[in-house]
Q: What sequence folds into this?
């Protein structure tokens, strides 16, 4: 399946199966989602060069997807030495607020998938870290899109959750976590390792910049996590990409859990 065909499949699957349920379940407004998409598309340049760069980083490569789950703070210290050794063989994909602890630990990600909930983009302007930003537009972050730093436009690929094909794309996914998995599917990763992706009853402290500790998930957040988990399960069931959870299974019982030794072996076996 070609890139364009995979994009159409992911978009149509989301629009037909998931988006109507999400609108009904959460009471979101379609026209606000559309307005956000139009705003983002208006400011971003042509995505062609970024698509080539992302394809180089993900296509037929091993990808470590790091999410800001409640266990991430301890997990990152465990995996840091190994990830540093393998960094030239591995693409690091941060999910929203996981960007912060990765940078703090000198593990600069290649890509971050975000709706700007987990960090302030001005941080990327100041640090000038060479990361590609997959920025999602929806009705609840219109103000953040309006204030998005122009210095980041050239390194930002826009996504949305409506049927929109002008400079930004609907790649599927409801939350940043499952959208990161959709990105790996779209660009045909060889193997995907999930770290810190927890679908339990707690939210990790790095999920929001104003959190100081892990917090209990409220009912809305819990329902969002259930949707994300279902979308990921559907993706992996039909996928040729190999998936592993690194060190913990995060309630994704369909995905095998591996330790660091097996992680290293798998990375080194990919040519």
A:
């Amino acid at each position: 399946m070609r890139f364009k065909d995979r994009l159409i499949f992911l978009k149509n699957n989301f629009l037909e199966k998931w988006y109507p349920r999400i609108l009904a379940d959460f009471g979101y407004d379609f026209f606000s989602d559309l307005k956000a998409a139009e705003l983002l598309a208006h400011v971003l340049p042509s995505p062609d060069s970024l698509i080539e760069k992302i394809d180089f980083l993900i296509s037929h490569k091993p990808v470590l997807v790091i999410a800001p789950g409640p266990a991430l703070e301890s997990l990152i210290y465990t995996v840091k030495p190994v990830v540093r050794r393998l960094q030239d063989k591995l693409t690091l994909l941060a999910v929203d607020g996981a960007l912060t602890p990765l940078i703090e630990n000198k593990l600069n990600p290649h890509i971050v998938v975000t709706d700007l909930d987990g960090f302030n983009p001005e941080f990327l302007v100041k640090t000038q870290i060479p990361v590609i930003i997959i920025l999602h537009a929806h009705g609840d972050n219109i103000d953040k899109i309006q204030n998005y730093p122009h210095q980041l436009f050239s390194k930002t690929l826009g996504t949305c959750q409506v049927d929109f094909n002008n400079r930004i794309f609907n790649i599927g996914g409801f939350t940043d976590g499952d959208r990161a998995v959709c990105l790996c599917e779209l660009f045909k990763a060889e193997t995907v390792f999930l770290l810190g992706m927890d679908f339990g009853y707690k939210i990790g402290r790095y999920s929001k910049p104003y959190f100081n500790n892990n917090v209990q998930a409220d009912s809305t957040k819990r329902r969002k996590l259930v949707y994300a988990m279902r979308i990921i399960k559907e993706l992996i069931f039909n996928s040729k990409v190999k998936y592993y959870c690194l060190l913990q299974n995060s309630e994704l019982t369909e995905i095998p859990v591996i330790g660091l030794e097996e992680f290293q072996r798998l990375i080194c076996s990919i040519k």
Notes: Residues 84 and 138 are 35 Å apart (CA to CA). Residues 3-269 form one domain. The chain has one domain: 3-269. Strands lie at 62-66, 91-95, 111-114, 132-137, 156-160, 191-195, 202-203, 215-216, 242-246, 257-258.
